[in-house]
């Protein structure tokens, strides 16, 4: 019997500051905090699915939309952390990731970025990854705040390091 | 070893109709309308990737059009135009396109005596292009 192969995509919703001048004057910790905000109540699993389907249809047409929608599910979304997990077909994973990146609004909430963080073959691994990533970001913010809103070179490089170390910790999970 | 000839283009002979003779007789379909219809069809079926499909008109004669499509995109093109019905916005009535002929060589196209001039020009242009490449 042929098994249905699926992939799980961990994504986060970022809310970049709308005023670019503010962005220049902000410290890196503040910048990180301003991007990682809690999502408004309008952003729900239902509205995310609707927006993904709309984006799929817009960018990939009827054919691509139908192809990707076959197994598309939002398994989890937390408004508090603006983090979610999407399940999709293994073959269509790239298209779904592309669609996520092209989204700029969810429901009535605009000017946001959907950032696909990681793809995995099991939901368990992606949950573990999300927890590790969040706790490391939290530690970074705490350490950044304690060193007077650090001019230390943190945000982008350190986030990249978090992802890299997490990658190394995780063994191949391919089915 | 038998050398496989590289096919760059696929040629389509298309006809557009609203299935209403009165409307068909009133409207003349120009190249812009054809282009709009084809772009809409490609966009509907394949989104932004469909819009990127390369095609060009060899000749347009009201309800008939001869189109050149990149060989790699021939299936995308044919499936999108054969599954699309336009809205009323183009001529006030939905339009559909039928593929009358599909071939990989210009010389295989079904044409009338009136079409010989543009076909000859298209053949010579293609040969010129081929000479430049080799």
Task: Name the features.
heterodimer; A: 175 residues; alpha+beta; Alpha-Beta Plaits; 4-stranded antiparallel β-sheet; B: 134 residues
What gross morphology of chain A would you assign?
globular
Radius of gyration of chain B using CA atoms only: 16 Å
The CATH top-level class label of chain A:
Alpha Beta
What is the typical, i.e. mean, pLDDT of chain B?
A: 88
Name of the top-level CATH class of chain B: Alpha Beta
- Total strands of chain A: the figure is 4
**Proportion of residues in extended strands of chain B:** 15-25%
Percentage of helical residues of chain A?
Answer: 40-55%
Give the distance, in angstroms, between the N- and C-terminal Cα atoms of chain B. Answer: 20 Å
How far is it from the N-terminal to the C-terminal residue of chain A, by CA?
Answer: 15 Å
Largest interface: A-B, 9 and 11 residues
| SSE ordering of chain B | EHHEEHEH
The CATH homologous superfamily name of chain B equals Ribonuclease P, Pop5 subunit
Assign the structural class of chain B, choosing from mainly alpha, mainly beta, alpha/beta, alpha+beta, or little secondary structure: alpha+beta
Q: Which class do the helix and strand fractions of chain A yield?
A: alpha+beta
Helix segment count of chain B?
4
Q: In total, how many domains does the architecture of chain A comprise?
A: 1
| Largest sheet entry of chain B | 4 strands, antiparallel
Q: What quaternary form is this? A: heterodimer
């Amino acid at each position: 019997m042929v098994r249905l192969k699926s992939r799980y995509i961990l994504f986060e919703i970022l809310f970049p500051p709308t005023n670019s001048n503010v962005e220049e004057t902000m410290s890196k910790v503040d910048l990180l905090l301003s991007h990682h905000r809690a999502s408004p109540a309008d952003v729900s699993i239902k509205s995310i699915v609707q927006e993904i389907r709309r984006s799929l249809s817009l960018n990939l047409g009827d054919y691509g939309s139908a192809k990707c929608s076959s197994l598309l599910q939002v398994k989890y979304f937390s408004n508090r952390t603006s983090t979610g997990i999407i399940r999709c077909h293994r073959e269509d994973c790239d298209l779904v990731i592309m669609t996520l990146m092209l989204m700029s609004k969810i429901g009535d909430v605009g000017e946001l970025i959907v950032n696909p963080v990681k793809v995995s073959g099991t939901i368990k691994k992606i949950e573990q990854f999300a927890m590790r990533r969040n706790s490391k970001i939290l530690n970074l913010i705490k350490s950044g705040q304690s060193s007077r809103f650090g001019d230390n070179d943190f945000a982008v490089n350190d986030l990249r390091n978090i992802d890299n170390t997490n990658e190394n910790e995780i063994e191949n999970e391919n089915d | 070893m038998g050398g496989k000839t590289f096919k760059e283009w696929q040629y389509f002979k298309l006809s557009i109709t609203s299935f209403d003779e009165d409307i068909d007789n009133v409207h003349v379909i120009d190249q812009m309308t054809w282009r709009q219809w084809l772009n809409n069809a490609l966009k509907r079926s394949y989104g932004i990737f469909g819009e990127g499909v390369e095609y060009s008109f060899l000749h347009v004669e009201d309800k008939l059009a001869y189109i050149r499509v990149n060989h790699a995109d021939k299936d995308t093109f044919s499936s999108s135009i054969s599954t699309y019905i336009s809205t009323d916005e183009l001529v006030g009535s939905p339009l559909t396109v039928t593929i009358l002929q599909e071939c990989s060589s210009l010389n295989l196209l079904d044409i009338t005596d009136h079409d010989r001039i543009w076909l000859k020009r298209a053949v010579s242009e293609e040969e010129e292009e081929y000479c430049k490449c080799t």
